[in-house]
Design goal:
heterodimer; A: about 150 residues; alpha+beta; 5-stranded mixed sheet; 5 strands; B: about 725 residues; Aldehyde Oxidoreductase, domain 4; 3 domains; 7-stranded mixed sheet; 18 helices; 2Fe-2S-bd_dom_sf (chain A); 2Fe-2S_ferredoxin-type (chain A); (2Fe-2S)-binding protein (chain A); metal-binding (chain A)
């Protein structure tokens, strides 16, 4: 079986996996990194949203071979040690989560948005496609705006 | 939830077979068993029983205080490490019950909220372990506070004895007892001696509401940090040794039957451990979910069409319409407002698809999954696997949403059958396609209303409906169908939730028919009220229109309950009812009363493009009696607003020749951020009354307000839901 090396949450990892294995299952089933969630497997619900070389991506539709020698960050790698990323802190401050299942993906999507767009408009926030079945969208919007302000200050 | 999440997750190397696989899970879940040298108190959870205080210990060594049978109890333990642990006989699926109970416990103990752990209890043999009917806070509010107040009294008494001080002179705070001279003792340090206290020297009664410091204060979820760091564990995140990823090939049609399977190609693929037939299809156990999906897709299966193969939406709708009983004759001389409504099937679609880990052995079974009905699940798993119920252990996990879906335990039974057939532990996951195409779903319904008015007043109100019922429960889940039909609701005083006893509408009449189809159905958040009350609130607007009255003014003069009028007034004022809106924009309003609570919703919509409307603003007001956690209540209302937007405007399931057309969130159009209100606010009415239910409360009001806003913005009469389908 081929072997792939990449950087995962700041650490080098090497896995033996079929080339076409979606990264989501490499993360969850082989590396036991379970923050990215399965919600559809077709890149639609975006519960698995993580970062590839700093950009938002959906590991359920990206093959492990496409991640070779690149940098993958999941929700587990977003904080700086015990210091939460401002988006994570805003999520707590606004008490965004309900069931919590989609929130790792929501947070990773929001962090990626703020990296590109430090002062997002409502239309920018509307562009986030991640599904929240509990309907926490209003608090997600509030938390993104709070995190944006915190990042600027 | 903190307790489960923070305990060490077993992540050792997974083993294919063999005995050691059980040890890991045991350690994981036995952490919270009663310790012999700590204070442990218990309160009965049945509705009509008294607190445990003063009862004689029923079991165990003398330094452990436990009353009654453990299986019936809400048990509180104070550990030597100064943790307050209450194993909760309910499931956390996002509704915030673990936080609400932690607040009740911390309030009465004067403990720090951060020192309280609320792990979920395994399935018990007796007692109320049902999560549903918006009943958890209602049923736990008394017992949880009495439990903690009893523990506090014993801890204070133990400290008084230790320090030879009068108990009345001692205070409690920050999970400690505090003496007048400033000495402190943590609850943990007092636990062993408190366990031996029989007669308390201070009151064991809960505080009056006027002294509440935590109950009623907006409080962040106790599991918030675990969630945002990815530590919160759902069933699929558990590593139970040897439990391999498992998926099931299912028929294209609902209830389709397996004719034959050629599994040679699938078995030849790398990483495939087992292929077994189950009632729902063909299961593949593999090294990863990638391997499992690949092998599933390599199965060559012949399916026979299911029993609905000749049916599509058009026929179902016409059969439902024909099954609606006739309305009686209207009062002589009255004017009629008539309307018919149709609601499509709706998926529960929790973000976490159904997932269950099962380890079925010759004489025992152990199951891990998120369940609203673990006691019933255990009995059904026992009968499906041929084991006595006492041999089946069900561990209850937090759920990634539910909305009623986890009242049923389809996946747990299926996982148990696969484990039994494959002779190995399995981690079964339904794909999103499985979840969308094979249910369960909110039943489709058809409603006929007639309101009769004379001299400016409604003198009669009639409603007749027909809904789809589930005709047979195959797949060995017979108990579940019965369960779905059992409403599981608490009888509360006041008008019943529908037909429309909320209003002074003269002579009321109601009738219901139905058709039976072999289709997997389930109770969906707010159950019948999601359709009945939504439709009624639309009719109320149309009556007001027929009488030339404003929707808010008309409701204010015809509502029976003062509490409902108060929440209506609140949203009308806070939401500036009647403000001028541009063309294509409008406000809509609706109210609802159920579970001993009431709610009003005002929605503003931009329907300049009627095919792509946007609800821009939602204002809700709720009176739920004492709101234990207003922040959690606001979250529940916010969720129901999105339920209303989704089910009224855009999200439903089509049936095409016996199959569900939709297969994921790509075509099951649940609201995204761009459909959600840009502005949401919730007003919690002050109340010192007993808590009412709140989790489902908002759905009909939000749905009705969205539909009424759409009607006013577009000048149309909404009749079929979802409107853009």
């Amino acid at each position: 079986m081929p072997s792939y090396s990449f950087t995962l949450n700041g650490r080098p990892v090497t896995v033996e996996a079929p080339a076409d294995m979606p990264l989501l299952w490499v993360l969850r089933d082989l590396l036991h990194v379970t923050g990215p969630k399965y919600g559809c497997g077709v890149g639609v619900c975006r519960a698995c949203t993580s970062h590839l070389d700093g950009e938002e991506f959906q590991p359920c539709v990206v093959k492990v071979k496409e991640c070779a020698d690149r940098t993958v960050t999941t929700i587990e790698g977003l904080a700086d040690g015990d210091t939460l990323h401002p988006v994570q802190q805003a999520w707590i401050d606004c008490d965004v989560s309900q069931c919590g299942f989609c929130q790792p993906g929501q947070i990773m999507a929001a962090a990626a948005l703020l990296k590109k767009t430090p002062e997002p408009s409502d239309a920018d926030i509307d562009g986030i496609e991640n599904v929240c079945r509990c309907g926490t969208y209003a608090r997600i919007r509030e938390a993104i705006k709070k995190a944006a302000a915190d990042l600027r200050s | 939830m903190d307790g489960i999440e923070s305990s060490a997750a077993p992540t050792g190397p997974a083993q294919d077979t063999g005995a050691p696989r059980r040890a890991v899970s045991r350690r994981r879940f036995m952490v919270y068993s009663l310790a012999a040298s700590t204070l442990t108190v218990a309160a009965p959870l049945a509705c009509d029983t008294s607190p445990a205080q003063g009862s004689e210990p029923a079991r165990g060594p003398s330094d452990v205080l436990v009353t009654g049978a453990d299986a019936e109890m809400l048990v509180l333990e104070v550990t030597h490490a100064n943790r307050i642990v209450v194993r909760l006989p309910r499931v956390e699926v996002g509704q915030g019950i673990t936080t609400a109970v932690a607040m009740m416990i911390a309030e009465e103990l004067d403990a720090r909220l951060a020192d309280v752990d609320i792990p979920l209890a395994d399935a018990r043999t007796k007692g109320n372990q049902y999560t549903g009917g918006s009943n958890s806070v209602v049923s736990l509010y008394g017992p949880a506070r009495r439990l903690a107040a009893t523990a506090r009294a014993r801890l204070v008494t133990a400290a008084a004895r230790r320090w030879h001080l009068p108990a009345w002179s001692l205070r409690t705070g920050n999970t400690m007892v505090i003496a007048p001279d400033g000495r402190t003792a943590t609850f943990g340090s007092l636990s062993a001696s408190a366990a031996r206290i029989r007669r308390t020297a201070v009151s064991a009664e809960p505080k009056p509401a006027s002294r509440h410091k935590l109950i009623g204060r907006p409080t962040t979820r106790i599991d918030a940090r675990d969630i945002v760091t990815g530590k919160a564990q759902y069933t699929g995140d558990l590593s139970v040794a040897g439990a391999k990823p498992t998926v099931v090939a299912r028929p294209p049609t609902l209830g389709g039957r397996l004719v034959s399977v050629d599994d040679r190609a699938a078995r030849a693929l790398p990483g495939v451990h087992a292929v077994v037939k189950v009632p729902g299809g063909v299961a593949v156990v593999a090294e990863s979910f990638h391997h499992a999906f690949q092998a599933r897709d390599a199965l060559k299966i012949k399916w026979a069409p299911g029993p609905l193969a000749s049916l599509s939406d058009a026929q179902i709708r016409s059969r439902l319409r024909a099954a609606v009983p006739h309305l009686g004759s209207p009062p002589h001389g009255s004017t009629q407002v008539e309307a018919e409504f149709e609601f499509a099937f709706v998926s529960h679609a929790p973000m976490e698809v159904l997932t269950a880990i099962a380890d079925v052995r010759a004489h025992t079974a152990e199951i891990w999954f998120s369940s609203q009905t673990p006691t019933d699940a255990r009995d059904s798993i026992a009968s499906a696997t041929g084991l006595p119920a006492s041999a089946v252990t069900v561990h209850v996990l937090r759920g990634g949403g539910s909305f009623g879906r986890r009242l049923n335990f389809d996946a747990a039974i299926e996982a148990a059958l696969i484990s039994k057939a494959a002779h190995r532990p399995v981690k079964l996951m339904w794909s999103r396609g499985d979840d969308t195409r094979h249910g369960r779903m909110r039943p489709a319904t058809h409603h006929r209303f007639r309101a009769s008015h004379a001299d400016g007043r409604v003198v009669a109100f009639s409603h007749a409906m027909a809904g789809v019922g589930e005709s047979s429960a195959d797949k060995g889940t017979a108990n579940q169908a019965a369960f779905v039909r059992r409403p599981g609701r608490v009888q509360t005083a006041g008008p019943r939730p529908g037909d429309s006893g909320l209003y002074h509408f003269g002579r009321l009449s109601a009738d219901a028919g139905g058709i039976e189809l072999a289709i997997p159905l389930g109770a969906w958040r707010s159950v019948d009220s999601g359709m009945v009350r939504t439709a009624e609130e639309i009719v109320v607007d149309e009556i007001a229109g027929s009488l030339g009255k404003d929707p808010v003014a008309f409701r204010r003069t015809t509502l029976r309950s003062r509490s409902v009028k108060a929440v209506l007034d609140k949203v009308a004022a806070a939401g500036s009812w009647g403000r001028t809106m541009p063309d294509g924009h409008a406000q809509g309003v609706a109210v609802h009363e159920e579970y001993g609570s009431c709610v009003a919703c005002l929605a503003e919509i931009d329907a300049t493009d009627p095919k792509h409307p946007r609800v821009t603003k939602v204002v809700m007001a709720a009176d739920v009696g004492t709101a234990v956690n207003p922040r959690g209540l606001e979250a529940q209302l916010m969720g129901t607003a999105v339920d209303g937007i989704s089910t009224v405007l855009q999200a439903g399931l089509h049936i095409d020749r016996g199959a569900v057309r939709e297969g994921s969130f790509a075509d099951f159009q649940w609201a995204r951020q761009r459909h959600a209100p840009l502005h949401f606010e919730a007003h919690i009415m002050p109340s010192a009354g007993e808590p009412g239910g709140a989790g489902e409360l908002g759905v009909p009001a939000a749905s009705g307000a969205v539909a009424n806003a759409y009607a006013r913005a577009t000048g149309t009469r909404p009749r079929r839901f979802p409107l853009n389908f």
